[in-house]
Amino acid sequence: MRRLRVIRGWKDLPAGDRGAAVAMGSFDGVHRGHQKVIALAAKAAGEHACPLGVITFDPHPRVYFRPDEPAFHLMKPDQQARALEALGVDVLYVLPFSPEFAHLTDREFAAEVLHKGLGARHVAVGFDITFGWGRTGSPATMQAYGQEMGFGVSVAGAVADGSGEKFSSTAVREALRAGRPETAAQILGRPFAIEGVVQRGRQLGRKLGYPTANVALEDYVIPKFGVYATRTRLPDGRYIPGVANLGINPTIEGIRAPLLEVWLFDFDEDIYDQVIETDLIAFLRPELKFASLDEMTTQVMKDATAARDLLLPELE
Length: 316
Known about the structure:
Blueprint: E1 5-8, E2 21-24, H1 32-48, E3 52-58, H2 61-65, H3 77-86, E4 91-96, H4 99-102, H5 106-117, E5 122-126, H6 139-149, E6 152-156, H7 169-177, H8 181-188, E7 193-197, H9 204-208, E8 213-216, E9 226-233, E10 239-247, E11 259-264, E12 275-286, H10 293-311
Parallel strand pairs: 1-4, 2-3, 2-5, 3-4, 5-6
Antiparallel strand pairs: 7-12, 8-11, 9-10, 9-12, 10-11
């Protein structure tokens, strides 16, 4: 089975790790606009008979320059790697976004990182790319450096929906914050998914008749609080439909940080401390505070019926 190789850094790489056709960007979400950039790099990789690579950054430049902003990530590194591998990417270059790196001029970045460090045969970028200290680099300057230094450059135009709305990571975040996971999925080309370790909680849901797998949101963008129809991938690859509350569950005292609490339908296995990935398929209702646990349980059962009708219509 083909596996994506992850290379951290760009200095002193062996010859076998250099010479790819690369797509460059942060690629948070690997949405359909990102996929267009990667497709241009793939075309060049085929023409040059060289590996297909992707360049990304750790931490995300936004974290480096604006560390106090709210969480915004659309995926974790391993989710990003899986999405890139599914697109046929051979090698992922993760470049450390350090003070030294951040202060490279656009010319220094092209010369030291792309040309000398990675030995790039071709560089594909998006139409709105900026790079280098002060964000002075642009698609036009990248094309000029490519001509000067001997690597090809291609520029992907914007990708938009039928109404002309540009596909972007920002648009995905806005859709999720508005409780529109279907719109986010249209931009991403797949549902938005939250991955994390199943935490050990108070097992209140189990006592009430709906055991939940609880996952912290950590650095993810926080979608609209509420109840979602979901699909969860287990470590063994099985997908289990379910319903989830995403939020702080105001009926229950003690929950402070946002939490994803997923009830997996027709499932009764111990998955504590395992990593699961849950797709948000549809928003069912906003998060509510109930007067009693009985009232909450009644509503959860209604939510489960609505989620089943949506996810498993063939069983009706």
